[in-house]
Design brief:
Largest sheet: 8 strands, antiparallel
Oligomer: single chain
Low-confidence stretches: none
Strand order of the largest sheet: 1-2-8-7-6-5-4-3
Radius of gyration: 21 Å
Helix content: 10-25%
Number of strands: 16
Number of domains: 2
Length: 325
């Protein structure tokens, strides 16, 4: 159990949690920055969390849903107020409603996390600031302290699993909910370089080629919110398949961290919502795509096409292109 102390101060309206880890600050930071890792310990053991958004930069947001043993769910959000990697971050923490958006009628609180190096590893100090005594007492009565202790009890095992932090894994697919998947990979280069490689037509044409034997015939990159983009491909051997194109509209753009857009395959019904987040990690940039499909059936059909293998082939090329961008 890494928790050293939990202190609730009813006069100052704060709860302070101190925990010690036998791992360096960068590794503890990475556990909080990577949605694939934080969801392994965020939430009590009986209520594991699934993060559908995790943008760890000032102004970024997170969305997560905890699922209980009987299938009940509870969703929350973070709004990142400050990020100083790998030393500290500050968020506004609150509850989401059934629509997955912040419920401003429920209590919210400001939380700070600080990671200090110690002789044996890292000391994490987390302080939660409440608006009123009523809010503090309400959340304590809801089991906040017990839930935090249960969640923290899982971190040691996560930090000990060094494979979770490896930067050399191939493109990873995770099914989040019935209509959502997360695709992630660590690619070479800084977030600025990886962002540039997604927004420069000449660079796109060098790496976004899909499987071997295909050529990108058009690369109109995304721009500001409201702009359109279009990519088209054709096989070098006409017998290998028919040319195709995808297009969409930019919904959000916050360089060099987050891009959200619609996407559709031309001449096919339906469209997806794609959300890309770029996070600096040791070894490069963690690229995360969360894709929301119109139905579970569409999701299954798309994944059956070998989409992930094609993305891995492209990301292997991106490793060389982004690092020199």
């Amino acid at each position: 159990m890494p928790i050293t102390s939990i202190d609730t101060d009813h006069d100052a309206l704060t709860t302070t949690i101190v925990a010690d880890f036998a791992a360096p600050p960068q590794q503890v930071w990475d556990a909080y920055a990577d949605p694939r890792i934080i969801e392994r310990f965020w939430g009590p053991e009986e209520w594991p969390a699934t993060f559908t958004r995790h943008d760890m930069f000032p102004g970024g947001q997170s969305r997560y849903t905890m699922t209980g043993p009987d299938g009940d769910t509870s969703s929350g959000y973070w709004e990142f107020l400050a990020v100083d990697a790998p030393r500290s971050f500050e968020v506004l923490d609150g509850f989401c409603g059934p629509d997955g958006e912040p419920n401003r009628d429920m209590p919210s609180m400001r939380m700070t996390y600080r990671f200090d190096e110690t002789a044996s590893g890292t000391r994490m100090t987390s302080v939660t600031y409440f608006h009123t005594l009523e809010e503090l007492e309400q959340l304590v009565a809801m089991g906040m302290e017990e839930g935090t202790a249960s969640a923290m009890s899982q971190i040691d095992a996560v930090l000990a699993d060094l494979s979770a932090f490896a930067a050399d894994r191939a493109t990873q697919l995770q099914e989040l909910f019935d209509t959502q998947v997360r695709i992630s990979r660590v690619v070479a280069g800084t977030p600025e370089q990886v962002w540039r490689a997604h927004h420069d037509a000449d660079l796109l044409a060098r790496w976004m080629l899909g499987p071997d034997g295909w050529t990108m015939t058009e690369a109109t990159p995304p721009g500001e919110p409201g702009s359109a983009f279009r990519y088209a491909w054709a096989p070098e051997d006409p017998s290998a398949g028919a040319p195709f194109a995808i297009a969409g509209e930019v919904l959000e753009s916050d360089a060099p961290h987050r891009l959200a857009h619609t996407e559709r395959m031309e001449d096919m019904p339906g469209e997806t919502r794609n959300e890309m987040t770029l996070t600096p990690v040791p070894g490069g940039t963690l690229l995360v795509y969360v894709i929301t499909y119109p139905s579970a059936e569409v999701r299954g059909a798309v994944l059956a096409t070998g989409m992930v293998d094609g993305m891995e082939a492209s990301y292997r090329r991106l490793d060389g292109v982004a690092a020199g961008a």
